[in-house]
Design goal:
Elements: H1 2-48, H2 53-63, H3 68-81, H4 87-97, H5 106-119, H6 127-174
């Protein structure tokens, strides 16, 4: 009876591990999609709002989900504190602080860092330059999203097979 109870516990643990791994895949995909939405919102705000950059970031933070809302708020507050700061460098510093909270693939994280370069040209005279700098980030994010969707089914099946196989081997060793 005790071995049967142990087998059920091992099977439940392997199921939980598979579920956790699959959730991590979906979280990574969702974070990348949110970053793509952020780039779209930035393009719209740069084009139509024409407000100072700290205010623009604060406005964007109200309409985007976490962890990007906190990232935008921190960049905005640090820009207001340091008026003469190098904006792309400040953006990279804050992104590095939030790196662990964002489960992004490396190419999406590079696109996030490129967004900071667009802010160095955010004056109204060089609005086109800012928008052109956001375009490569958008393309990189779209490619990352397509790649993640393509890999999702295969990885999901692989994680399930590995976790259940490990659970079955553990059950065999227990018996």
């Amino acid at each position: 009876m005790l071995k049967l109870c142990g087998c059920v516990c091992i099977l439940a643990a392997s199921s939980g591990m598979a579920y956790s791994c699959i959730l991590t895949l979906y979280r990574r995909l969702r974070q990348t999609e949110l970053l793509s939405e952020l780039v779209t919102a930035m393009e719209g705000e740069l084009t139509y709002s024409r407000c100072p950059l700290p205010e623009l970031l604060e406005r964007l933070s109200r309409h985007i989900s976490q962890p990007y809302a906190a990232l935008l708020q921190q960049v905005s507050s640090r820009m207001e504190e340091k008026q003469e700061a190098d904006i792309p460098l400040l953006w990279e510093e804050v992104c590095a602080q939030y790196r662990r909270q964002m489960s992004l693939p490396p190419e999406a994280y590079e696109a996030l860092l490129k967004i900071g370069e667009a802010f160095s040209y955010s004056s109204y005279s060089s609005l086109d330059a800012s928008l052109k700098l956001l375009q490569p980030a958008r393309r990189k994010l779209d490619a990352a999203i397509r790649d993640q969707y393509a890999q999702l089914a295969g990885k999901r099946k692989l994680y399930c097979c590995l976790c259940y196989t490990a659970g079955l081997f553990s059950i065999i060793i227990l018996l």
